[in-house]
Amino acid sequence: MADTSTDHGRFALPTKNLPAPQVRDLPEPPTQTWKIVGPGMVGAGVGLASGEFILWPYISSQVGLVFLWGALVGVVIQWFLNMEIERYTLATGETALTGFNRYGKHWGLFFAIMTYFANMWPGWATSSASMLTYLFGGGDPRWIAIGILASIGLILTFAPVVYVMLERLIFVKILAVGLLVVLALIFAIRAKTYDALGHAVTHPEFPVDQLGFALMMGAIAYAGAGGGQNLVQSNWIRDKGFAQGIHVPRLTSPVTGEPEADPTANGYVFTPNDENLARWRRWWKFANIEQAATFVAITVLTIAFTSMLAHATLFGNPDVKNNISFLKIEGVTLQTLVGGWFGYLFWAIGAFSLFAAAAGIVDYTSRLTADMIKARYLRTSKVSESKLYFGLVWGLVAFGIIVLLAGLTQPLVLLVISACTAGTMMFVYSGLLWWMNSRALPKAIRITPLRTAVLGFAFLAFGFLAVFTIIDQLKKL
User: Fold this and answer.
1) Where is this region: Disordered (predicted)?
2) Which domains does the chain have, with CATH numbers?
3) Which is nearest to 126 in space by CA: 422, 410, 469?
4) Has residue 132 got a pLDDT over 90?
């Protein structure tokens, strides 16, 4: 086949900060693509955490469903962000953070630090611990949360291939949440909530006076993924073997896993001829469908359901306060409406979901940071990415335990801190993604005008929310 690469442009990855990538043909997509579905599901499953079980239900308990449109906006924006993150990795095998490093020496370090800061506060572990105390009728959430953090460290350490373990854990979580959805639709959600949903569609509101910018920004930023979790789509699709990611070794346990391959090559680009571009179109179509059918669909349905359930049980209740205790009230109300068994099931599935989310968050935070350190600062070192990863895992676990022992145990406060940091990150990397994908890649696979417009909207929206959140918080000092 004739090389028509001159018709489509070539890769233009800067080589000032990192070595030039190797040239390899784009691999053929598998004939049975269902076998590689997973990264979008993992993204949705890890994201079914603070936003779905805490922030959005709390908002619905306070103002009803009139702000539910914010969740839809947040998820759709994140789908576009995820696909631009995946675009770069599909084409090069490098993570988005590595791509950022090609344009600025320490951009990857900036995002790694921001992700680590956003997720070092153990809000998810303490949320899971609190729901376990509701389930069993007592206990100290602080010590339970410490046990949860330690168990997460052990699970991630002894999993032979970390991504495979995480995918299985998230699959069980999604099945459990699906069961809760079906039972709630049958037994708990009443006509008044469906009426409220219809009113929210025709009369949406922006209830900043009741909620404040910090909570609203956190809810939009964490509608689905948010912050560093969007960036880690690069790492997850590499571990699943998408496109050029198939050439990159997977993270394995230093205790039980196989030795990893040599990861010294930074990236693998392809000659943009007709054959490779035909493969690219199939990979790009599959990646978009995989994200839409898993990440977007699961996230939107779950946020809508948990918000409707909170509305059915809590809206108008003056006892609901701005802390996680509202989940106890919700469970007790479900016991009154449906039966004692349903309240216990709600707490059990909520506790497991938040535990799985905490495991995913520790994983992706450590995964992002380990990849960045190895690719940018320790390329020639004998220290493997896997060993860096597990050191960072236990660093997060240790810091979380210190925070809990110091007495900072209010989950909603910890989650708002994390969410505001995530929103600020999204403001910055929305602009960087556009810059990178409109310059580094061949013309035939660059970001399109429509997707450029969405990234521009994300940049402005998250920038606006970040500024007003800071102003809002300064007024409270």
Assistant:
1) 1-24
2) 24-99+106-257+272-307+334-428+456-475 (1.10.4160.10)
3) 410
4) yes
